[in-house]
Design a protein that fits this description.
Rossmann fold; 8-stranded mixed β-sheet; Dihydrodipicolinate Reductase, domain 2; 321 residues; 6-stranded parallel β-sheet
């Protein structure tokens, strides 16, 4: 079987990892990389012994698939010429900067029969995969926290599109019900974008999700989600790749806490990004639907933009006096 020729467009923080993983896959050939920063691009190209292309479109005719890991504002512009030719694209999250661009990207991929996968990497966390594989939960309340120090990257977007969108995608995949209401607060702290935010999502089936994202923590990063249903809940630590299941059983009537049973779920640690890229390559080879489609990426973006719109509408303290 011929190996799949892949190019990586944008080799910054995430793109260089895409290049590393493709170069190590036995069924792929890293054909080349493209980056507007020549020094950075040259470094990654030299590291993997591949050409550096001055423009993304120079990869056309050289590749069977591409990863797009440029800043969000350029996602549509960069992916467009490849999708127009039916070339599969793995586009980092968020799918685009605007709903209009997301709709255009999804429509273009559909019209050309091109595979379009969006890089919501937490879908490939072993704890999340175990949730989908092994549990039949009907969530009633979800609590998610994603807190980290300032990253000095992804400065073209705020914390909602940088961090919270991971949990928005996960919540939307957990709760199979239309979204009824969104409320949110947030504010800039270290940048001119929103750096800390809290959102409450209410669904038509009565489920509620509360999400907090911050990139101004002085402590260690926290990436956790808890999914509650009647008499049980599941706790997932994305970063530690751990899962625990809490259920109720018989116990001492004078000590309600004695009814709680805790089961630690055994998981094999894995590189979620590598699993995401392997899944993309498998989709390219088999011409199958990607696990995180363009439509799902568009859905997560739509809710993230709703969160930002609610934040903009919330009066700030200085506006009240």
């Amino acid at each position: 079987m011929n190996r799949i020729r892949v190019g990586v467009i944008g080799v910054g923080h995430l793109g260089r990892e895409h290049a590393r993983i493709y170069a190590a896959l036995p069924d792929c050939v890293l054909t080349g990389v493209a980056d507007i920063h020549e020094g950075r691009g040259r470094d990654i190209a030299t590291r993997h012994g591949v050409p550096l292309f001055a423009r993304p479109e120079d990869l056309l005719g050289q590749v069977d698939a591409v990863s797009v890991a440029v800043p969000t504002r350029a996602h549509f512009e960069v992916a467009k010429p490849f999708l127009e030719r039916g070339i599969p694209c793995l586009v980092e999250k968020p799918i685009t900067a605007t709903i209009e661009e997301a709709d255009a990207m999804v429509a273009l991929a559909r019209s050309r029969g091109a595979i379009l996968q969006i890089g919501h990497v937490e879908r490939f966390n072993p704890a999340v995969q175990a949730y989908f594989r092994d549990f039949r939960i009907v969530p009633r309340f979800i609590e998610a926290q994603r807190i980290s120090p300032y990253p000095f990257r992804s400065t073209d977007v705020g914390v909602v599109l940088d961090l919270m969108i991971h949990d928005l995608d996960i919540v939307l995949s957990f709760v199979r019900s239309p979204l009824a209401r969104v409320s949110a607060v947030g504010l800039p702290v270290l940048s001119n974008k929103v750096d800390i935010a809290n959102a409450r999502l209410e669904f038509e089936n009565g489920a509620v999700a509360n999400l907090t994202a911050s990139r101004v923590s002085l402590g260690d990063a926290v990436r956790k989600i808890k999914i509650f249903q009647h008499e049980s809940y599941i706790s997932i630590d994305y970063q530690a790749q751990k899962m625990a299941v809490f259920t109720l059983g018989p116990g001492d009537p004078l000590n309600p806490m004695s009814r709680i049973r805790v089961e630690e779920v055994s998981l094999d640690r894995q590189d979620a990004l590598a699993e995401e890229i392997r899944s993309f390559v498998d989709c390219v080879r088999t011409r199958s639907a990607p696990p995180v489609s363009g439509e799902e990426g568009r859905r997560a973006l739509a809710v993230a933009l709703q969160v930002l719109e609610r934040i903009e509408r919330t009066p700030r303290p200085e506006d009240l006096y």
